Amino acid sequence: MTAPLLHAQSARFAGLDPLLPAAVEPPPGDTLTAALPDGRRVAGVLCRTVLTPGTPQTLWSASEVWELHPLLGAAGGSGMAALLRRWPSVLARMSPGLDSACVVNWPSRDAESTGALLAHGFVPLAVLAVRTGLAEQTAPETGVRVRRAVAGDLDVLVDSAMAEVRYSSQVGGAVPRPGAERIKRETLRAHLAQADPMWVAERDGVPVGHVEGWHTTSTPGSWAETRVPHGRWAYVNCLSVLPEARGSGVGRALMAQAHRELLVPGTAGAFLYYNPPNPLSPVFWARQGYRPLWTVWEVRPAGALR
Question: What's the whole-model pTM score?
């Protein structure tokens, strides 16, 4: 059953958005199936993940996650609706706690499936966006200097990253956790040790923000294969501007430098995640040439699924 559904789903994805990769076999998990009125059947694989406390993922995710990997074949919204109707009865037997979520990653341009997801209580908390255009042309920002981060910038990077966590936690993009600053410090220290590119923005010699980025390769079996076509991609992990400097062009200056250094010959493109409910992110990233490819739909806590 899986192979025909994957083939048909890949064909449908290609029609929805030429940048979508082909559908791949879901990871191991519990299989759900549903029948449509016309006799077709759809399926999905339900995977449960429990995050280790203190890991970076806990800063943007519930600790216990049930992710559904739909196999809808050529079916659109009707297939998604039929599959989602099966999910609550299965989840009810698992007694999820408050720090939990149901998650579906699905192509952003599949408008047919949006209604089904909304009807079951899902909200779009994240978007994977790809860069398909150039940044809007604006006058160069004066007084802003962008440079590569070095080991001595660790405290600066932590302060900037925590400003992003505090803001994002208000709009569902981050989860406030005890020990968040320690987690960020350890993560940023590791990136510095690996020489992953990060940039610091200064105004009059005072740090006012930073951006992180690196390259990742989409290959058969890699996590990136499920999200972007095969190739070497630039990935922007975090952009943060301190509150007192927001709206003054610091973010634009940081991204201009990051794009110059990340989008080297041989790079297929650039992608990142942003939080749609964040009032700053969607407009900013659209002006930087990014547009949605995948939407991460969530219900928190998982027991709120309907």
Answer: 0.95
